[in-house]
Amino acid sequence: MESKNFTTKILVDQSPKEVFTAINNVRGWWSENIEGFTQTLNDEFIYHYKDVHVCKLKIVESVPDKKVVWLVLENQFNFTKDKNEWKGNEIVFEISVKDGKTQLEFTQIGLVPEYECYTVCQDAWSSYIQGSLKNLITTGKGNPNTKENDLNKELIEKWGLPNK
Question: What is the pTM (predicted TM-score) of this model?
C-alpha cells in the first residue's frame, strides 16, 4: 500500500503574484507566533503554538508567483509518541492558473495517514489553507493564531535563527 501525502487546493480570483505574496505572509494566515524571516530563499523561521507544537522551517525553494517549499528542520509535538514526526517533511505551495483563476495546491510531503498526528494535522492544514490563507488572499485579512507569550522560548533559543 502506497502512503499518500496530505494535499488540499483552493481556487481564487486573485493573481498568482497576490497568492505568492500571501503565502509568504506567514504571520498573516498561519500564526503571529513566528520567529525569524519568512520571505525569501534560505530564510529560516520557527512556528510555535502554546506547548503543543514547535517547528523550525527553512525556505528551500522560492519561484515567484509559482512555488514555495519549506523544509521542516526540527519538530516537536507534545501529543504524539514520536515527537519529531514532521522532521524532514517538505511543505509545498504550488501556484497555477486554471480556467482563468489562480489555483493554489498545498501538499505536505511526508504527512501520511500512518502518522499519529495525521488527522489533527490534516484538519489544521485544511482550516489554515481553505480558511485563513484563502481569506488573506481574497479579503486581505487571514485568521492566524494570535500572539502568545513565548511558551516555547527554551526550544526557540536552542534551535536558533540566523541574523539578517
Answer: 0.90
